């Protein structure tokens, strides 16, 4: 671990001093955030937020900007993105202390959405919140038919920063001091012995001090070439890498990089795939969902062993056109750099496969223990 990381881990407040590198710029951004929050008037069509919650998020975002000013767009989008309620059923006062609220931002994922919902229902999840971002493939209509979910629409164009803003806004609506399970529609959360216990029972076993649960983003693939048609996603994409991961502790998180995407698409590149996530977390006052991989303040992310995984289904046939669209829009990280590479390699040889002789087949939650140096 670098000296800087070790020091900030011992004195977490130092993480908020990054803004001193460019103090004038950081002060300017902080003032704008403060003013925007004070001038904000709630749209009657927008998801609601209590005044005291707004004040808490204002203070939290200002602190966050001093730690990570490059992500200030999350704070501005938190106020400007219009998230419209379609159906709200969850009675927050009736939710137990060990019962999570699942949050999922989704767009055009009709092929996976039924698999995902059924998976989490079987896990025991009872509180679902879906935000549909202008789906045109039937995803919204499918979600509308599911009576057990709270459904919202957002017509703000997708960016990675906007996504985090929307998640924060959802949490601002449902409140603090609750467990949240935040997953993408292509991710299935796995925890040890999940075949024997519900998600509520798993949370009950975590203990009071564990308010963020660390997971490995586990890319799943088949023996065949990528972008193949299948009616059985979990059965077909049932392999994963067991020994292509690197671990690095920082003051922000326990970072794991590598995996099959690194191995196949970026083998000789400096790009590193971040495979650490904290999808299950107990959200308290002062917290910010600051990125798809971790939360702020950073210190609770550190020193946490990896005990869970997110089975990540990345290369379905329907994804090919989706990734081409992302390349055109450039609305993902670094101008959709990752997706440009997928399309480039695919166009060179359409029989690209992630499978190799060291691949491990996923059977159940115990399969995770075959991964070297992680679990």
* SS class: alpha/beta
Spatial ordering of strands, largest sheet: 1-4-3-2-5-11-7-14-6
How far apart the termini lie comes to 20 Å
Shape: globular
Q: Which consecutive residue ranges, at least 5 long each, have pLDDT under 50?
A: none
Main sheet, how many strands, which sense, barrel?
9 strands, mixed
Q: Output the radius of gyration.
A: 20 Å
User: pLDDT average, as an integer?
Assistant: 95
User: Which H/E pattern describes the elements?
Assistant: HHHHEEHEHEHEEHEHEEEHEEEEHHE
Q: Say how many strands there are.
A: 15
Number of domains: 1
**Treating each run of at least 4 consecutive H or I residues as one helix, how many helices?**
12
Strand residue percentage: 15-25%
* Helix content bin: 25-40%
Any overview of this molecule?
- The protein has 375 residues and is α/β, with parallel strands linked by helices.
- The chain has one domain.
- 34% of the residues lie in helices and 20% in strands.
- Strands 1-4-3-2-5-11-7-14-6 form a nine-stranded mixed β-sheet.
- Helix 2 runs antiparallel to helix 3, helix 4 packs across helix 7 and helix 11 packs across helix 12.
- It starts with a helix and ends in a 14-residue tail after the last strand.
- The mean pLDDT is 95.
